[in-house]
Amino acid sequence: EKSGALSFWLGVRSMKSPMGEFKYSGLSSVALQLLAIPVSNADSERVFSLVRRIQTDFRSQLSTSTLSALISCHLNKNAKCCEQTVFPESLRTNAKKCTAEKNRGTPAASSDA
User: Fold this and answer.
1) How many CA atoms lie within 13 A of 74 on its CB side?
2) Residue 53 near residue 47, CB atoms below 8 Å
3) Kind plus residue range of the DSSP H or E element containing 45
4) What is the C-alpha to C-alpha distance for residues 48 and 44, in angstroms, rounded to an integer?
5) Euclidean distance between CA atoms 52 and 13, whole angstroms
6) ∠ at Cα 2 (78, 32), nearest 5°?
7) Taking 90 as the threshold, does the pLDDT of residue 30 lie above it?
8) Separation in Å, CA 87 to CA 56, 78, 82, 93, 110
9) Cβ-Cβ contacts under 8 Å for 101 (sequence gap 6 or more)
10) What is the pTM of this model?
11) The pLDDT of residue 109
């Protein structure tokens, strides 16, 4: 459902002059862009908080794509598709090995070679 302000400015945007030209396209465009600005920054603050929880000192070298995937998984954790995800045993084994080696302070050797 459209809000009153949104409906109003969409109506203004569609107004035409007798010549068939849009009368207030610039003004309505600015107004519609202003209506798109969030009232609060709570959503962005939640994402920054989530990033701080995911990217810890132990995970300081996560690539942007990995961090993005982890954030996406967290934000969509209640989606049905995530419940059916099965990770290969080799991935779980390698992850455990890397974690153990990281905790001991030794470099992890990948078994994917």
Assistant:
1) 16
2) no
3) helix 42-54
4) 6
5) 42
6) 100
7) yes
8) 23, 18, 11, 10, 17
9) 107, 108, 109
10) 0.38
11) 55
